[in-house]
Amino acid sequence: MMAQAGSAPRPPALQELTRFGLGGTADSSNPFLAQINAALWTALGVGAGGTGSLIQSLNKEASANDLGLLFQTGFSTRALLGLFGSDQFRLAVSPDGSTFLDALRADPATGIVDQPNLPRFKGYTNYDNYVGVGAWTKIGINNTEYNDQGAFDAGANRFVAPVSGTYLFGATLMFKVNASTSARMSGRLVINSSDVLRGSYGESSATHRSEATALWLQSMAALSAGDTVELQGSFRAHDGYFAAEQTSFWGAKIG
Questions:
Q1: pTM of the predicted model, to two decimals?
Q2: Superkingdom of the source (predicted)?
Q3: pLDDT for residue 146
Q4: Taking the domains of the chain in order of start, what are their residue ranges?
Q5: Of the candidates 215, 242, 212, 249, which has an alpha carbon nearest to the alpha carbon of residue 127?
Q6: Measured between alpha carbons, how far is 189 from 230 in angstroms, rounded to an integer?
């Protein structure tokens, strides 16, 4: 191939190379090495004889093998993206290069995306909570059906935000009679034991039916890490109980 004037000669092809080092020395562990500050892959345009598209394929031999990209700091991996040990697509992060936490997983059979480390919980009380007239009382949500990231503190009956973000909460308050079904049942969600979460307050004012009349609450909150949310109930006119098993509190981070 003839070289252009004023330029170094270009070989027509490079075939069967065993190592290639650009700006550094490739070795057996890294037969292709590029030590550079920027790189560009661009499609060959139609005018130059190409299609205008650019597709890069990465292939592994079998499902159990690994295929992906590693993102490192000081050659210690902080994130990985790809198919690792299966055909499930994963995005995982690491604080130290050895422990990895999956942020996203995509099921190849269904296309369903999961966030396995998303803070979420559903808790309930396993005893009838007595509440007097006019007294806002924290409900003893002391058991959990699930509690991802351990964000719900069943001992203190409250949710503790593990990270800052937007959270969605909901609750069910189930009435149980003490002396009268004319009790007026109220409920609310409270942030940091003092601030009522706007939009979470509600009251059932009709004549109640024991272990059938329920009050449902739902609202969103922008929380900082360490903020707490608890469920509170109250009665007016007559006292009563918030029933075991069906009185529940749930939430999840949504943004």
A1: 0.83
A2: Bacteria
A3: 94
A4: 64-117, 120-253
A5: 242
A6: 6
